[in-house]
TrEMBL record:
SUPFAM superfamilies: PLP-dependent transferases. It comes from Aquibaculum arenosum. Gene3D superfamilies: Aspartate Aminotransferase, domain 1, Type I PLP-dependent aspartate aminotransferase-like (Major domain). InterPro entries: Aminotransferase_I/II_large, Kynurenine-oxoglutarate_AT, PyrdxlP-dep_Trfase, PyrdxlP-dep_Trfase_major, PyrdxlP-dep_Trfase_small. Its cofactor is pyridoxal 5'-phosphate. The keyword Magnesium does not apply. GO terms for molecular function: transaminase activity. Keywords: Aminotransferase, Pyridoxal phosphate, Transferase. It comes from the Bacteria. This is Aminotransferase.
Amino acid sequence: MNSLFASLPTTVFESMSQLAREHDAINLGQGFPDDPGPEDVRRAAADAAVDGWNQYPPMFGLPELRQAIAAHYQRFHGVDLDWQREVLVTSGATEALAASLLALIEPGDEVVLFQPMYDAYLPLVLRAGGVPRFVTLQPPQWRFDAAQLEAAFSDKTRVVLLNTPLNPAGTVLAREDIDLLADFVERYDATVVCDEVWEHITFDDVAHTSLLSVPALRERTVKIGSAGKIFSLTGWKVGLVAAAPPLHAAISRAHQYLTFTTPPNLQTAVAYGLGKEEDFFLGQRQDFQRQRDRFASGLERLGFTVLPCQATYFLNVDIAPLGLSDDVAFCERLVREAGVAAIPVSAFYAEDKVTTAVRFCFAKRDAVLDGALERLERFMTQL
C-alpha cells in the first residue's frame, strides 16, 4: 500500500457523522444544505440525461459549459477568458485541486499552505512530492502578515495553495492581503492555486475578489470554482477551472489521466445555471445570510461566543470563554450529551493547532436549526 494514504486516519467529518448516526444527533458537522437546490437547474440535468448525449463528452468539457464559465467570470469578476485555451471542466473541485498540484509540483518543491485548510490539501501536496510550508491563521480575524509570509516563502517555493472565501473561518481575503501575497508570489516566481468554491456565498455586502482578476496574478493563478457550491448541489461534483494557457495546458494533461471527463447532463445543466439572472445569486446569498443570523443570534442567546462570519455555510464559536480548551473533546461530548454534531476546527490544522474553535453548518431548514438550539440550550444548563 502507499504509505501516505495507508497511514491517513478516518476524516473527522466521517467520524463525527458516524457519532451523529449512533446518537440520533442533529448533524451540523457536514457542510451541505438540506434544500434540494434550484428546480430549474435540476430539471435541465434531467432533460439532458433523457434527451441529450450520454457518451463521452470532450475531455476539456462541453463547449457550451466552457463558454458559460468564461461569460460568468467576466460578468462577476471582470476577467476576460479565452474559453478554448483557459477554461477546463473537472469532476469536482477536489479533482481540480489534484490535477493542479500534480501538474505544477515537482518532488522537492515547496508549497505554501494557509491553515486552517480543507483536509484534502496536505495529502495531495505530499502525494505530488511537495514540501509543505505553513502559514497559521488565528481567530477571530484569521489574517496573515508580511513576517509570516517571509517565514514561509523561499527560493524553493513553487506553489501557493489558498482558499478564499475560507472554510472553516468564514472570512474573505481582503484586497490589501491579496496585494501583499501578490508581492511575494512575484518575488519568488510562484504560482497560486486558488480554491474559490465559496465565491458566491458571501454576506453583508462583502465582495469576494478573485485572484484571477488581480493584474499581477492574472498569469500566475489557477482559479478553481464549484458548481456544487454555486447551486447548493454538492453531490454533482462539477469543478470549474480557469488559468492562463501554459497552466491550463499542464493541468489538462493531469486531468486527462485522472477522471478524463464529467457527466454531460450535469455540464449542460451547469451551463444553463451559470447564465441565470443576478437576482438568483443575490437571493441565494440573502437566504444563507438569514440562516446565519438566525443561528448566530440563537447561539449568542445561549452564551456562546460567536466568531465573525463573512462567507461559506459555516459559523464558528470560541469555547475558551466557557472555560474549555479542547475542541475535539467538546465536540464528542456535544454529540453524545446534546445530540448535536459539530466539527472541531483543530482538524483543519497540520500543526500549531487552534483548539478552542468549533464549526457549525447553518445551511439548514429553520426547524433543524431551532431543534439544534433547543438541544444546545439543555446542554448549556448542565455544562
